[in-house]
Amino acid sequence: MTEHFSHVVRGSGPGLLLAHGGGGGIEANFGPILDDLARTHTVVGPDYPGSGATPRSDGPLTLDGLADSVVATAVSAGVERFTILGYSLGTAVAVRAATRHPDRVTGLVLTAGFAHPTNQMRLAVDVWRELLDLGNKELLAKYLTFAGVGYGYLNALSPEELEGALAGLAVPEGAPEHVDLVASVDTRAELGRITVPTLVIGTRQDVLVPIGVQRELADGIPGAEFVEIASGHSMQAEARDEWLARIRDFLDR
């Protein structure tokens, strides 16, 4: 059965559906740009199971299930057709939604995305998952900051700022299921079936999802536009204005 997720709805205008990353949430991944997007669009932001106010799943998550549920959440909110803005794991959710619900999806904006985890990504995800099981929040925060933040931004932080960033890193209850799903993603076979306008925004300093992986995602989608921003995986904090400008330019067109 398709679920409706807990969600935010903001603004008015054409539909824009958000698909967040693994171990993230709508506020964590899109909070810095939500108000700006809502100035021109009706923004629907569903939280996956175990994020925000959506109850944690009692079993493994599937890409089909997430894709169907984020689409159903938008439709239940009165938004029948929409562009999907996906981040990290959310790019795979967006691709799957576009191929399963082509009558609903009018465009894709994919940031820090991948079609299939490489060996490098798989090792990173394995460590992430094992740290979640260990329950050592301080060590997990150090690892996710090392892997998730670009070198330019990270190395410019003062010791106090770095300490604050580590202390402020929140991990949602459903992160283990999210991370398990990241490891199993494979949308390579369906990329060629995407017919809507697509923008892929690459994060050039990304350790978690290397830029070559992001380029391959763009190369697999017919006619996709590819741009890069100077940022690691956490471009919300590192390059918020440039990220928003790229999204806005695409949406305006």
Task: Provide an overview of this structure.
This is Pimeloyl-ACP methyl ester carboxylesterase. Keywords: Hydrolase. It holds the Pfam family Abhydrolase_1. GO terms for molecular function: hydrolase activity. The chain has 253 residues and is an alpha/beta fold. It has a single domain, classed as Alpha/Beta hydrolase fold, catalytic domain (Rossmann fold, 3-Layer(aba) Sandwich). The chain contains eleven helices and seven strands. A seven-stranded mixed β-sheet has the order 1-3-2-4-5-6-7, with helices on both faces. Helix 1 links the parallel strand 2 and strand 3. Helix 4 packs antiparallel against helix 8. The model has no long low-confidence stretch (mean pLDDT 97).
Give a brief rundown of this model:
47% of the residues lie in helices and 15% in strands. The protein is an alpha/beta fold and 253 residues long.
Alpha carbon gyration radius:
17 Å
Extract low-pLDDT stretches: none
Strand-residue proportion = 15-25%
CATH-level-2 architecture? 3-Layer(aba) Sandwich
Helix tally equals 11
CATH fold-level name: Rossmann fold
State the domain count.
1
Determine the structural class based on helices, strands and strand pairing: alpha/beta
Number of strands: 7
Overall shape: it is globular
Average pLDDT, rounded to a whole number, is: 97
Strand order of the largest sheet: 1-3-2-4-5-6-7
Q: Which sequence of SSEs, written as H and E, runs from N to C?
A: EEHEHEHEHHHHHEHEHH
The share of residues in helices is 40-55%
CATH superfamily: Alpha/Beta hydrolase fold, catalytic domain
Q: State the major sheet.
A: 7 strands, mixed
Termini separation (Å)?
Answer: 36 Å
